[in-house]
């Protein structure tokens, strides 16, 4: 058993120290199989990446149309229903609807920026400086959404006193979620800026 193991190790050692021409001459079938395997892995990886990008773009389109539906139909209908059931809060319908529509518009901006980033990923240019423009846009949109959600949550909870206790809890939860997303984007922007800077340095060296 020990003799067979030493023989296998010795063969692998000789293969690793053979030149390309010697290895190709003495082990042509094995090297050809390795080359084919590498090409197959490359093709599979490229296909997987393209499939994921296409799936993500389909989801972005669905979310954009869903957001438009919420802005145009659902939010006005909710505002009308609340104003009818609680006329004392009817004066808040227009500013709250405006804040909700603006918050969803921020989410739409993030989706559009994500679409543009997927295009850069498809072209293998995600670490170019142009990607920072879209990431900065996402950070600003998340910041505006956080401020809007927090303002509505604070006003409805501590000033207007709207609805049962679940309403301010939900609004405060949305504000915290938007704030967390904003902070995550800031961290990701810092990582992308570092990656872009390293790429620029490597390009200059090359």
What does this structure look like?
Helices cover 87% and strands 0% of the residues. It is an all-alpha fold and 206 residues long. Helix 3 (28-85) runs antiparallel to helix 4 (93-122) and helix 4 packs antiparallel against helix 5 (130-159). The chain is elongated, with a radius of gyration of 28 Å. The model is unreliable at 1-24, 30-38 and 40-44 (pLDDT under 50).
List the helices and strands and how they pair.
Blueprint: H1 2-16, H2 20-26, H3 28-85, H4 93-122, H5 130-159, H6 166-205
Helix pairs in contact: 2-3, 3-4, 4-5, 5-6
Mean pLDDT: 79
| Cα gyration radius (Å) | 28 Å
- The count of strands amounts to 0
Major sheet: size, sense and barrel closure? Answer: none
Q: List segments where confidence is low: pLDDT < 50 over at least 5 consecutive residues.
A: 1-24, 30-38, 40-44
> Fraction of residues in helices?
over 70%
So how many helices? 6
* Helix and strand composition category: mainly alpha
Strand content: under 5%
Q: Shape from CA axes?
A: elongated
Give me the strand/helix succession.
Answer: HHHHHH
How many angstroms does the end-to-end distance come to?
50 Å
Keywords:
single chain, 206 residues, mainly alpha, 0% strand
Can you describe this structure in just a few lines?
With 206 residues, this protein is mainly alpha-helical. The protein has helices at residues 2-16, 20-26, 28-85, 93-122, 130-159, 166-205. Helices cover 87% and strands 0% of the residues.
